[in-house]
Design a protein that fits this description.
30% of the residues lie in helices and 22% in strands. The strands form four sheets. A seven-stranded antiparallel β-sheet has the order 2-1-5-4-3-6-7, sandwiched between helices. Strands 11-10-9-8-22-21 form a six-stranded mixed β-sheet. The protein folds into three domains: 218 residues, no CATH class; 166 residues, no CATH class; 54 residues, no CATH class. It is α+β, with helices and mostly antiparallel strands.
């Protein structure tokens, strides 16, 4: 049926509001710090075919995960789905979960006795078994090393729990109360979504709401295609590298894309990417598709309404058996570094099309996972933290510091929460001076987070850009790479690889995580001296780096700019770097472009 513009906008806003209310419910009822504090979860509404009709963005990758999870439920249960059902799935291959700890809970919404759609939530679980606490082993060689995997299973029938499924999950987790509590919180948020969706249908009628679903898909696709049509036709190519796959530590993993644009059609071809890896650096096609959608949303309109219609506006080619389309049972659990490299690659490839929105590479993502037994109650615990870094500088402004970047959107857990719930003490939490890449616009700063462990525990990390630093753009410098040390100031100091699993921490051990800074944008010698002076005064840049990287000489005490000395220093630095410009280069040939990726940074 036709629907007028006013009703469409009201229904669209209502759908978005329902999802936000679901998410608020989930975050308030979360048992674990992962959900309650870091908010590593998202909610969505789907139609009866499993297509996303509303997702208020917390974790953008889930726009690809929800339809794949719904598809698995529909394939398995089909016409037997009934009101009061609830479903669980976390299998990356049989569903769409990025990795097994991301458990999806789906409930069907019925209107007038017929299936109308699904309400869904995906939330990270602190531990679902496997060889290491947190279920995220950086040395996993197959999915069977990554904890409990559930295909699509019926978790509720007639609104009653299948307690046997809960018993199985609890028996496979080091923190069963938290995992089951979070699953029930997801179920509650889904049921809330059902009620709100039924209220919306009661207000506007089934036919009008269904017509809105179809119209939202059409307008989403049309919005993206219209923007693509305005871009120059051509072939755009770029690449980035992940430090390693956790197994072969000296071999970077290549992510390569060729974006071919003709008219309003855009295809992303990833055939040049590395073969699937032994270690858990692989990602599945639903995430590749979601990463492409995220990049397009960012470049076209960050406030764009999110629905599956966006996914219809482009196509992808991911070679079978590659790191972006692995064959079962290739491991996938430390997938995020690969997704970040993929997003950086997409932005680099599309930079010639939208030069005003070019930005340097950011810090990527990382998490630390500590598991053990508490000294008081003797129960198992898993301390899972997502730690931010520096954002890449943009064409118009500096990169933000101590912030999650790209598709990662979780929060750093407060120190008070960490110290009250786990046997640890945070000794340092500070910005790292000089970690942002130099440029006309400076990269954001990374952070240093240092802990003293109070009890024997097992430590794992999944990080990135400790070997290959974040690229600058348009002549900007690279950001400072990250690092992880155990007892950094002691005789037995040990530096861990970018991904590492199950390091035995002793009571009293200290571990220090330095996160990367963002790359810089533009020629550092064009940064106004007063901006450099302000950075020095704020502690973001040292006086030595101001002179070395920016050619800004400060008077004694670093309180003022020595204009004459600065002019001389910048002339000398400019002569030194000619004819080769600083930082990664970008060359253009007609409508085509090839961007040098992180390959140059491998020469060390």
């Amino acid at each position: 049926m036709p629907i007028d513009a006013v009703d469409l906008e009201v229904i669209k806003a209502s759908l978005s509001g329902i999802v936000q209310e679901m998410q608020n419910s989930l975050f308030r009822t979360g048992f674990s710090t992962i959900v309650r504090e870091s908010q590593d979860a998202s909610c969505a509404l789907m139609n009866a075919d499993g297509d996303v009709v509303a997702q208020h963005v917390v974790l953008p990758l889930h726009i690809g995960a929800f339809p794949a999870c719904c598809g698995a439920v529909l394939e398995k249960f089909g016409g037997t789905i009934a009101e009061g059902d609830g479903f669980l799935i976390n299998h990356p291959y049989q569903g769409g979960s990025p990795h097994a700890p991301d458990m999806c809970v789906l409930t069907p919404a019925f209107v007038e006795g017929a299936l109308f759609g699904f309400c869904g939530s995906i939330a990270h679980k602190g531990d679902i078994g496997g060889p290491v606490p947190g279920s995220c082993s950086g040395q996993a060689r197959e999915t069977f090393n990554e904890g409990l995997h559930l295909p699509a299973v019926r978790y509720q029938r007639g609104f009653a729990q299948n307690v046997d499924i809960e018993r199985i999950i609890a028996a496979n987790s080091r923190t069963p109360e938290l995992v089951i509590g979070d699953i029930r919180g997801q179920l509650g948020s889904d049921r809330l979504g059902e009620r709100r969706l039924q209220e919306l249908v009661g207000k506007y009628g089934k036919d009008k709401v269904l017509a809105s679903f179809a119209r939202l898909f059409e307008t989403g696709e049309a919005r993206v295609r219209a923007a693509i049509a305005e871009w120059a036709d051509g072939r755009y190519e770029a690449e980035r590298f992940v430090d390693d796959d956790g197994i072969t530590l000296e071999q970077p993993v290549r992510i390569h894309v060729v974006a071919e644009k003709t008219g309003d059609r855009l295809n992303f071809d990833f055939s040049g990417s590395a073969d699937q890896t032994q270690g858990p650096a692989n990602i599945r096609p639903p995430l590749v598709q979601a990463a492409c959608a995220y990049a397009l949303i960012s470049l076209i309109d960050p406030h764009m309404y999110v629905s599956s219609g966006l996914l219809r506006a482009f196509s992808i080619t991911a070679r079978d058996g590659s790191v972006l389309n692995p064959r079962f049972p290739a491991p996938v659990n430390t997938y995020n570094p690969t997704v970040h490299a993929l997003v950086d690659t997409l932005f680099a490839a599309l930079a010639p099309i939208v030069p005003g929105k070019i930005r340097a590479d950011g810090s990527g993502s990382r998490s630390i996972i500590i598991g053990g037994r508490t000294t008081s109650a003797g129960k198992g615990y898993v301390q899972y933290e997502i730690v931010a870094g520096g954002a890449g500088a943009r064409a118009t402004k500096d990169g933000a510091s101590a912030i999650t970047v790209n598709q990662s959107n979780a929060r750093i857990a407060p120190i008070e929460i960490i110290e009250s719930e786990f046997p640890t003490r945070v000794q340092r939490f500070e910005l790292i001076r000089d970690s942002g890449g130099a440029g006309a616009h400076r990269g954001g700063l990374g952070i240093r987070r240092e802990y003293r462990n109070l009890a024997d525990a097992r430590f794992s990390i999944r990080s990135m850009k400790h070997v290959i630093p974040p690229n600058g753009a348009a002549g900007g410098g690279t950001g400072r790479p990250g690092d992880i040390w155990i007892n950094p100031d002691g005789e037995g100091a040990k530096r861990l690889p970018t991904r590492y699993a199950d390091y035995p921490l002793k009571a009293g051990d200290i571990f220090r995580l330095d996160t990367p800074g963002g790359g810089g944008f533009g020629d550092p010698l064009k940064r106004p001296p007063e901006c450099v002076l302000a950075d020095v005064r704020e502690g973001y840049v040292s006086a030595e780096a101001a002179e070395r990287d920016y050619g800004v000489v400060l008077t004694a005490g670093g309180r003022e700019v020595d204009a004459a000395a600065t002019a001389r220093q910048r002339v000398m630095l400019r002569q030194r770097v000619q004819p080769e410009a600083a930082g990664p280069t970008t060359s253009f040939s007609g409508a085509s472009a090839r961007h040098s990726g992180s390959r140059d940074n491998l020469k060390r």
